[in-house]
Amino acid sequence: xxxxxxxxxxxxxxxxxxxxxxxxxxxxxxxxxxxxxxxxxxxxxxxxxxxxxxxxxxxxxxxxxxxxxxxxxxxxxxxxxxxxxxxxxxxxxxxxxxxxxxxxxxxxxxxxxxxxxxxxxxxxxxxxxxxxxxxxxxxxxxxxxxxxxxxxxxxxxxxxxxxxxxxxxxxxxxxxxxxxxxxxxxxxxxxxxxxxxxxxxxxxxxxxxxxxxxxxxxxxxxxxxxxxxxxxxxxxxxxxxxxxxxxxxxxxxxxxxxxxxxxxxxxxxxxxxxxxxxxxxxxxxxxxxxxxxxxxxxxxxxxxxxxxxxxxxx
Length: 314
Prior knowledge:
Blueprint: E1 4-9, H1 13-24, E2 28-34, H2 38-47, E3 52-54, H3 58-63, E4 68-71, H4 78-87, E5 91-95, H5 102-115, E6 119-122, H6 129-139, E7 146-155, H7 165-180, E8 185-192, E9 202-208, E10 213-220, E11 226-233, E12 236-240, E13 249-253, E14 261-264, H8 271-285, H9 295-313
Parallel strand pairs: 1-2, 1-4, 2-3, 4-5, 5-6, 7-10
Antiparallel strand pairs: 7-11, 8-9, 9-10, 11-12, 12-13, 13-14
Helix pairs in contact: 4-5, 5-9, 7-9
């Protein structure tokens, strides 16, 4: 199988993790890396046997002979870099958020459609074994009809300075809702905005097109990391307390007072590795199939915009 010649833009913590996974997969040949710090870019290139490094992002599609590019750069740069790469005929994997508005996200997917190229957003948690096991059980009807969802996303760190807690953390949560079949947001209300602090805590009550009631809690600078997903249906509940390789799926029947029981054990595959494998598979499939219209990505960005409006009104 021919390896996909790929470039990486962004050599920070997340970029280095992407480099490690791309370099480990036979599907890819990590041929070039780009970073603002030339010493850091060179170090990543040496560490993962990359052919060359640069500080000039445009040189990757101007000179690199690449088929794909992976973006791990500040959010404000995503739309411009992704558009340039797509126009140059490259497939793109972009760190979340894809763009800072739904209209910009729609424009990028239209560019990808015209170019016949894959545009994939890095929603890493969707590729965890924990989430996949939980989603498969919901799709199989184990919960009956979904009635409500509770999402808690609290990080101890400050997060990137260019994003508030909503644009930093909520893309993961709205991606989960999209993947589970919630549909577009029909209503978004702010329960708690902590006086508009960019780090939260932020509490939102949502109602989706599928009729689900959703509680979403976000916070940066928390005392400890807390990640929870709880889905309640007419036949029972499913719960995850994280999406790492060691996190199980828990279940309990509705109405019988029983406690939580593990129903799916840990999956040791790194979610980021599975994301990269998905990117490769989408690229292969795009040779004979349409890469899709990106409607889900646009709904995710529209949901964040709606939440931001509710937050500003408070």
